[in-house]
């Protein structure tokens, strides 16, 4: 925090008015369900993105990052999918979306720094948007951090920023997680109704840890694969005559699959419908303290994402298989896929051994060295100073 404040002063010539932060996330289960009106179950990470911010008396936005070279400047009225582009689109997009929502915002000086690993599938971009949104809410007296409804509205603006200005057609889970998750809880998010429920999630009490392994395999949500999956689901919903795949009850799945022509689309639909069922089952298992069952659901989710949804990759498969072979109760990819991170529920005593085994398996396979760490469910976006 001291370094961020000092860097802000060096960059912008005066101390910041305040510092706000927002967490990255891991999704426990419910992958590629958010844009299908489904259920997902993220936790907020201890890793956060910090934004030191001062308001300006004009409508200029100046942005700098400890992770990037240079200072980016744009007028609020000039923000578009083309401008300012790059990482700063995630910052500028939030101001654009708030203004579009009819809220009065002005210029800002912003310096960001992050402990969320970039490109690890842990939602560093949502953390960035939500830290800026939290700052804007306080500095422009929008009052949106003070209620769950306000936070949900901020999350929706951050999603618009990401979809329209940053150009990533993502579904909204990450921003809701960053603004609405509570400590020691997972957030059950119903993406059809917008309803949320906190589900107790404290593995420490049960002698287990959640081990995250950043595979460091390439992954980019702006590439075509994510958009193609989303499009296949929307196409299938149209063919089946429903608004979203959430409308397909598991008991009607076989019938629905029989009405689809393409084998590929059938598999995509099967993943979504069964994954939503697995979220409900995981919540029941967590509430019954049945971690073994949660582990089995993790494994089933990974298999479905690998075989039916086809968004895993070799690194994620090796990491999950190795974790299981060395004592994990279950393991799965988390986030969009094609790289990014794997999560595993591991007895606390073997967490180091599992991490070392994954590292050795990666070395054997000739992959880039992975990075493993344990996480606990942490708190949402807030003002730090
Ligand atoms: C990315 C997106 C989310 C969600 C996941 C897959 O993280 O940002 O909206 O679709 O992929 O569950």
Secondary-structure blueprint of this entry?
Blueprint: H1 2-12, E1 18-27, E2 39-40, E3 42-55, E4 60-65, E5 71-75, H2 88-100, E6 108-114, H3 124-139, H4 148-165, H5 173-180, E7 185-190, E8 196-200, E9 208-214, H6 224-240, H7 253-258, H8 263-287, H9 291-307, H10 314-325, E10 330-334, E11 341-347, H11 351-365, E12 371-375, E13 382-383
Parallel strand pairs: 4-6
Antiparallel strand pairs: 1-3, 1-13, 2-7, 3-6, 4-5, 7-8, 9-11, 9-12, 10-11
Helix pairs in contact: 2-3, 2-4, 3-4, 3-5, 4-5, 6-8, 8-9, 10-11
Bound molecules: alpha-D-galactopyranose.
Alpha-D-galactopyranose is lined by residues 27, 31-32, 34-35, 170-174, 335-336.
Provide a count of the helices.
Answer: 11
The hetero molecules present are:
alpha-D-galactopyranose
Shape: globular
Question: How would a textbook summarize the main sheet?
Answer: 6 strands, mixed
Radius of gyration: 21 Å
Which spans of ≥5 residues are poorly predicted at pLDDT below 50? Answer: none
Element pattern in H and E? HEEEEEHEHHHEEEHHHHHEEHEE
On the 0 to 100 scale, the average pLDDT is 97
In which order are the strands of the major sheet placed? 5-4-6-3-1-13
What portion of the residues fall into strands of 2 or more residues? 15-25%
Structural class: alpha+beta
Q: What fraction, in percent, of the residue positions are helical?
A: 40-55%
What gap, in angstroms, lies between the N and C termini? Answer: 9 Å
Number of strands: 13
């Amino acid at each position: 925090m001291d370094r961020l404040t000092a860097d802000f002063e060096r960059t912008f010539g005066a101390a910041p008015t305040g510092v706000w932060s927002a967490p990255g996330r891991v999704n426990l289960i419910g992958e590629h369900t958010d844009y299908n009106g489904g259920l997902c179950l993220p936790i907020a990470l201890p890793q956060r993105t910090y934004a030191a911010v001062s308001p300006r008396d004009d409508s200029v936005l100046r942005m700098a990052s400890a992770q990037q070279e240079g200072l980016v400047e744009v007028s609020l009225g000039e923000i578009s999918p083309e401008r300012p582009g790059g990482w700063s689109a995630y910052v500028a997009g939030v101001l654009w979306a708030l203004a579009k929502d009819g809220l009065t915002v002005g210029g800002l000086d912003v310096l960001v720094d992050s402990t969320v690993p970039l490109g690890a599938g842990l939602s560093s971009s949502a953390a960035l948007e939500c830290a800026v949104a939290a700052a804007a809410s306080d500095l422009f007296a929008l009052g949106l951090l003070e209620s769950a409804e306000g936070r949900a509205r901020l999350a929706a603006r951050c999603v618009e920023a990401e979809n329209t200005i940053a150009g990533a057609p993502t579904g909204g889970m990450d921003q809701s997680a960053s603004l609405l998750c509570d400590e020691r809880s997972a957030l059950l998010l119903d993406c059809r109704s917008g309803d949320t429920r906190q589900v107790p999630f404290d593995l420490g009490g049960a002698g287990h840890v959640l081990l995250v392994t950043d595979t460091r395999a390439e992954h980019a949500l702006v590439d075509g694969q994510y958009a193609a999956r989303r499009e296949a689901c929307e196409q299938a919903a149209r063919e089946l005559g429903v608004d979203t795949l959430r409308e397909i009850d598991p008991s009607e799945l076989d019938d629905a699959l029989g009405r689809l022509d393409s084998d590929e689309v059938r598999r995509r639909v099967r993943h979504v419908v069964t994954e939503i069922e697995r979220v409900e089952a995981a919540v029941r298992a967590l509430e019954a303290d049945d971690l073994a069952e949660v582990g089995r659901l993790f494994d089933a989710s990974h298999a479905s994402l690998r075989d039916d949804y086809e968004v895993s990759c070799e690194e994620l498969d090796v990491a999950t298989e190795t974790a299981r072979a060395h004592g994990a109760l279950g393991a799965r990819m988390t986030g969009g896929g094609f790289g990014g991170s794997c999560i595993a529920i591991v007895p606390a005593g073997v967490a180091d051994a599992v991490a070392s085994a994954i590292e050795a398996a990666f070395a054997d396979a000739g992959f880039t060295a992975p990075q493993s760490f344990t996480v606990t469910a942490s708190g949402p976006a807030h003002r730090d100073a």
